[in-house]
Hints:
The complex is a heterodimer of chains A (218) and B (249).
Chain A lengths: L2 H22 L10 H37 L5 H20 L4 H40 L3 H17 L11 H11 L1 H25 L10
Helix pairs in contact in A: 1-2, 2-3, 3-4, 5-6, 6-7
Chain B lengths: L4 H23 L11 H16 L2 E7 L8 H17 L8 E4 L2 H15 L12 E3 L4 H14 L2 E9 L4 H10 L3 E6 L2 H10 L2 E3 L7 H4 L4 H29 L4
Helix pairs in contact in B: 1-9, 3-4, 5-6, 6-7
Amino acid sequence: xxxxxxxxxxxxxxxxxxxxxxxxxxxxxxxxxxxxxxxxxxxxxxxxxxxxxxxxxxxxxxxxxxxxxxxxxxxxxxxxxxxxxxxxxxxxxxxxxxxxxxxxxxxxxxxxxxxxxxxxxxxxxxxxxxxxxxxxxxxxxxxxxxxxxxxxxxxxxxxxxxxxxxxxxxxxxxxxxxxxxxxxxxxxxxxxxxxxxxxxxxxxxxxxxxxxxxxxxx
Amino acid sequence: xxxxxxxxxxxxxxxxxxxxxxxxxxxxxxxxxxxxxxxxxxxxxxxxxxxxxxxxxxxxxxxxxxxxxxxxxxxxxxxxxxxxxxxxxxxxxxxxxxxxxxxxxxxxxxxxxxxxxxxxxxxxxxxxxxxxxxxxxxxxxxxxxxxxxxxxxxxxxxxxxxxxxxxxxxxxxxxxxxxxxxxxxxxxxxxxxxxxxxxxxxxxxxxxxxxxxxxxxxxxxxxxxxxxxxxxxxxxxxxxxxxxxxxxx
Lengths: 218, 249
């Protein structure tokens, strides 16, 4: 490992340990922050500030990727051109917004009239995608778990949706659906979350040991 | 004393886990442990082989896990897998690409890809290989979908913090008839992935990627520690239920 790698690994481990200890012993008996707590807060503030700056540089990366697409006339270059025009226009409107009320109004409208409907239509597309995926599920994995998955999804859907002229479906809406949602589903979800928590713990420890280095250091 | 008790308890759990991980990795260095078969990882190895043979590309999407939150663990597990996969595909004609929905994660993915490029057959690093595709869930998905479609990709790995938008990505991959392995730490996304992905990973299987892809002895020992802690939790839950049932708690 090069000296730069050793240095970055040492900093990452030291900062990780300080934040961890600050998290566990960050408060005094009277509820005020201890020295470790203050140190942890300061380190986290620095991390948040750096993450904010990273967004700016990340947008630069986004521009670079799409400009390369246009330059090399790759597939979808027209969409890249639209993205760059929209990005620059929105940026200019955002910069002008505090000084020009008209620019502020156009800036808000561009979000409400373009961004929101586009995201809503993607959400609608998602409903169709999921329905289609459920149909394909049995073709892809024909096993007991997939059958249970589909039957459960169907029962919950039928028990939740209000039906025309019927309202709730007796037995399904007041017994089956609450039972499935509150007992097996909650138990399963808690089991999965415990597994995720244990995985998170060991992932964190591997980073503290320097075994996983998601930064230059190998 | 009562104010530092939760801290001490948390510290004890972490300390014991750390000691166990180090001890087990030292003990098991000579005889690697055998884990249950997770078919998704076996198929991922095959897909990686095809990527190298065909001269196609591998795509790893790391999700939107912000590094300063608890969602970062899944993204960090994704980065570990990215590093390992970049090493495994280093003999291929085209370097892998990594997409993410968080700027800090993008820089880490670029760092990982740059490190891997030093030992690769191509020898050069493409700064656009690690990309930020969007900062909101759907803009992120909308940015990843063209990458899946247009960049000669034959294997997709979606590993990190995703929401329901994961279905749009798995659908895009399915349309291109490419291999797709998907995992998320988000419960809703896991349900969506189970229904839509070719190779879904559920729960802690996401964090087992390093152990199954031979990323190092600490990865294998961390899986054993997870199992030990899981049994401890099961015992605590059962004893607690029993005590509650008998009126002692």
